Amino acid sequence: MNPKGPRLGEPASRWRMIVVPVASVMFASALPLMLPLVASSPVLPPLGLLFFLSWQLLRTEMWPVWIGLPLGLWDDLFSGAPIGTAVFLWTAASIAIAYLSQRIYWRGFFHDWAIGALLVAIIQALAALLTHPHAATGRVLGLVAPQIIVSVLLVPLFLRLTGKFDNFRLKRR
Amino acid sequence: MVRPAHRRPGQSRKAQYSLFAAYVIAVTGAVAGLLLAVLSVVDPVGFAQLRIASHEVTAPVARATRSAIGSISGIDDAVSAYVGAGSQNRRLRKELAETRRQLVATSSLQEENRQLKALLKLQETDKSAIANGYLLTSTSTSSKRIALLSIGRNLGVEAGQPVRGADGLIGRVLGSGPSVSQVLLITDIDTIVPVRRARDGLPALAYGRGNGDLDVRTLNIANNPFKPGDILLTSGTGGLYPPNIPVAIVARRQNDGALARPLADPAKVDAVSVLRPYTPEDAEAQLLKSAPGAIPEVPKAP
Questions:
Q1: Chain B interface test: which of A26, A38, A74, A124 (most B C-beta within 10 Å)
Q2: Residues of chain A contacting residue B185, judged by C-beta atoms under 8 Å apart
Q3: Edge-to-edge, what's the strand order for the sheet holding B135-138?
Q4: Is A136's pLDDT higher than 80?
């Protein structure tokens, strides 16, 4: 017997359980600035936000409601929106998910998709309006509309991916 | 089906308090974040360094992916070159013969041009670039059009310097870090470039649309003078952008001006130059330089 090694069937390390979700969101937020893509319009979906919402929809109690503060700040550093935008919007989204998970007791796949889609649409629209306060509202919303549509269609994929990460996070030894 | 949440803390006082505290922190932080966002819209310079620092972290990865993918995207060019070699050879030979004829015609024009230029003593403005670099990546998830430039303060790049590619104007430097800097593209929805039409010098303003195109509007609203194919250059009005840099080509007319496409596509441009910001003093100095000579001497024709 090796007293120091992991025992069979032991739960995953606490470190891994905490780091995997946070790291996935942080990496997804920073990823667009690692790709050699000089875009002329918002072409990529907000990867960090989609992971953030998926984790919360999948494991509502995993994070405290204030987790949007640090993760939002990290996203703001890379997104190009004024710093504080995601801090505000992501935290508001956390509170909304916490509230909705009490109202809708048994959430199914389509509930999750609807909630995720609604929040992505609202957050991207408000973030664009906060970024360009002097531009015409219609034009700014028209600019992010294609991105919102793509993001809404990608929500199920991100829920799946998050599920895979969650299996890894909780994998017993 | 997701398991229902058990947010309700039950009878435990401690659990009740910690849940309450979490909500207090979240709401306070969210409000602070909103204030911060409004503040950083009003004063974007204050937080620029924080953002630049985070870009310094991702820049090495962007450099690596750029070189990797740049070499991959070259492959399809090489393959199609083999496939189209025969017809291309024939076409190129025809073009070469055509070009030789034109070259003969042009050489005489060139000589004439040189003489006329000497006649006018055209002062070439200081067109030498501060530094040359390439665009690494951009904020492709937000509505702000910021690209990351591969050089920073190490090569003298500072905020407020114009950036151009070989084909035309790209944007201006928003902030610079030790080894990378941010460039606000001219297509961003908040940028305005004073331009003039190359043909007749008609002054206009080019507004970014945020989707890669520009809106061009004249100061004269009564009639719409633009035609598709009009080339727009920077006018140098108001400083910052030096005059006579190509900006855009008019694509089609609109009710209140025209829709124009930038001549330099930031996605395809290979290298960009960071220029010295143009100041109104430059223009005055030019006038003073050309004034005393009155009528310059006519050089002898060879």
A1: A38
A2: 40
A3: B131-133, B272-274, B162-165, B169-176, B181-185, B146-149, B135-138
A4: yes
Could you say which DSSP state residue B249 is in? E
B250-299 pLDDT, tens digit each: 998 888 889 999 988 887 777 889 998 888 776 666 666 555 444 444 44
* Residue A79 at interface with chain B, using a CB cutoff of 8 Å: yes
What is the Cα–Cα distance from B251 to B246, expressed in whole angstroms?
15
Residue from B136, B139, B140, B272 to probe the interface with A (highest A Cβ count within 10 Å)? B140
Which residues of A are less than 8 Å from B272 in CB distance? none
- Domain range for A123 is 14-170
**Is B147 in CB contact (< 8 Å) with chain A?**
yes
CA B217 vs CA A100, A168, B192, B256: distances in Å: 48, 56, 11, 7
The domain tally of chain A equals 1
**pLDDT of B134 strictly over 90:** no
ipTM entry = 0.86
Q: Angle of helix B48-83 relative to helix B85-120, nearest 10 degrees? A: 130
Most confident of the ranges A32-46, B57-71, B120-134, B182-196: B182-196
Does residue A4 belong to any structural domain of this protein? no
Please report the domains of chain B, with CATH numbers, ordered by start residue: 48-120 (no CATH), 131-287 (2.40.10.340)
pTM above 0.90, yes or no: no
The residue of chain B nearest to residue A66, with distances taken between CA atoms, is B26
